[in-house]
Design a protein that fits this description.
The protein is built from 13 helices and 13 strands. The protein is α+β, with helices and mostly antiparallel strands. It has three domains: 182 residues, no CATH class; 49 residues; 79 residues, no CATH class. Strands 1-3-2-5-6-4 form a six-stranded antiparallel beta sheet. The protein has a five-stranded mixed beta sheet with strand order 9-10-11-12-13, with helices on one face. A hairpin with a 2-residue loop joins strand 11 and strand 12. Helix 5 packs antiparallel against helix 8, helix 6 packs across helix 8 and helix 7 packs across helix 8. The protein is globular, with a radius of gyration of 22 Å.
Length: 373
């Protein structure tokens, strides 16, 4: 069985994730290829599209979101994802057990004896006139069950009713309350009654492979996927990684030469690249806790240099100046620093086009200054 080392896995994954070169795809085409983007923050995920797509501007994506061409809703790992309208209709019923499991773990003691059908009917009635925040939905449901915790009622509705987080929340440059509407109300179509878990696994491999069964389970939150992969074996190819683990992939999926150049890329705080494998060593070789992030819940915004996480970044806009501050984890070569500065300048032009002054600052912290290339 062919061995794929860490660098080979890195380049294969970056290719699937549109991070070796910006792609000339539409946003729906990109989201279909990526099986969506994690998007629980209202807007940082726009950077994920900017880093992946050629000549990307945010406003057309915002229009797609406003018109229902793409949606933000709880999907993989019970977190909000940005996906196409078509994909949400088959993904949501497949991952419902994951959403229900996490909900019951946190709120189940408040829901004992509650009939699912009754709560679903009450939630749909409460949401028939307009989208509601979970606080408002909980108060509405408390009219039926005044003795129960409103927050638990709202979270049960989130688990049992496919809900879309509706605009203006998530629109570029705007803010709005986190209000939700049933997907069939927002899109005019119900979720699929019998979606295929085989399709889920195949779509994952196309976007994130080669991968282990544990990687697939980490991404979607589902369990017992070994039997699914075993059923799919005739349609897959298998490899081994450096730890001897079996990796699966689609036969015709791209697996570039490990020495393929990988450009500097800025990732947003919940970028799929960093959260969709059980073993993240194909892209992360640094210990985030050792870099000062272990004591907080902050998810750092990372920078890829030569395909691997090598820095974090922040943007601050004060008066007339937009400043991008980059903190490398290691010594950068002069050539790497030049690439980082150029890509950082482009990022500032995307995030803060109205600021008269753009400044890219590297503050190495414990890392040494750049060396000659």
């Amino acid at each position: 069985m062919t061995l794929l080392d860490t660098r080979a896995l890195n380049r294969a994954t970056l290719d699937r994730q549109l991070l070796l070169r910006r792609a000339g795809l539409s946003v729906p085409q990109a989201l279909e290829r990526l099986v969506g983007l994690q998007a629980q923050t209202p807007q940082t995920w726009y950077v994920g599209l900017w880093s992946r797509l050629a000549d990307y501007t945010a406003e057309p994506t915002a229009r797609l979101l406003a018109d229902g061409g793409v949606v933000r809703m709880a999907l993989m790992r019970s977190t909000i994802h940005l996906v196409t309208a078509a994909d949400c209709l088959w993904l949501r019923p497949l991952v419902e057990p994951v959403i229900e499991r996490s909900t019951m773990g946190a709120f189940g003691r408040h829901l004992i004896g509650l009939t699912r059908a009754d709560l679903v009917a009450a939630a749909r009635e409460s949401l028939v006139d307009k989208p509601l925040t979970f606080s408002d939905l909980g108060r509405a449901l408390a009219r039926w069950w005044p003795e129960r915790d409103p927050a638990a009622l709202a979270q049960a509705a989130r688990a049992w009713v496919p809900l879309v987080q509706v605009p203006p929340r998530g629109l570029w440059g705007r803010s709005g309350r986190a209000a939700h509407s049933p997907v069939e109300t927002w899109l005019g179509r119900p979720v699929e009654p019998d979606p295929s878990v085989d399709a889920l696994v195949l779509r994952y491999l196309a976007a994130f492979g080669p991968a282990t069964v544990r990687d697939v389970q980490q991404w979607c939150g589902l369990t017992r996927l070994s039997e699914v992969v075993d059923r799919l074996r005739p349609r897959l190819v298998a490899f081994r990684d450096e730890q001897g683990r079996e990796l699966f992939d689609l036969p015709d999926a791209p697996r570039p030469d490990p020495e393929t150049p990988a450009p500097v890329r800025f990732l947003y705080d919940f970028d799929n690249l960093l959260l969709s494998h059980a073993d993240r060593s194909r892209v992360v070789s640094v210990d985030y806790a050792g870099q000062g992030f272990g004591a907080t819940m902050e998810q750092p915004r990372s920078v890829l240099v030569d395909g691997f996480v090598a820095a974090t970044w922040r943007v601050a806009v004060n008066r007339d100046t937009a400043t991008l501050t980059v903190r490398p984890f290691r010594r950068l070569t002069a050539a790497e620093q030049e690439q980082l500065d150029a890509e950082g300048a482009r990022l500032l032009a995307f995030l803060a086009p109205e600021a008269p002054v753009h400044d890219v600052v590297t503050r190495p912290g414990n890392a040494a200054a750049p060396t000659a290339a």
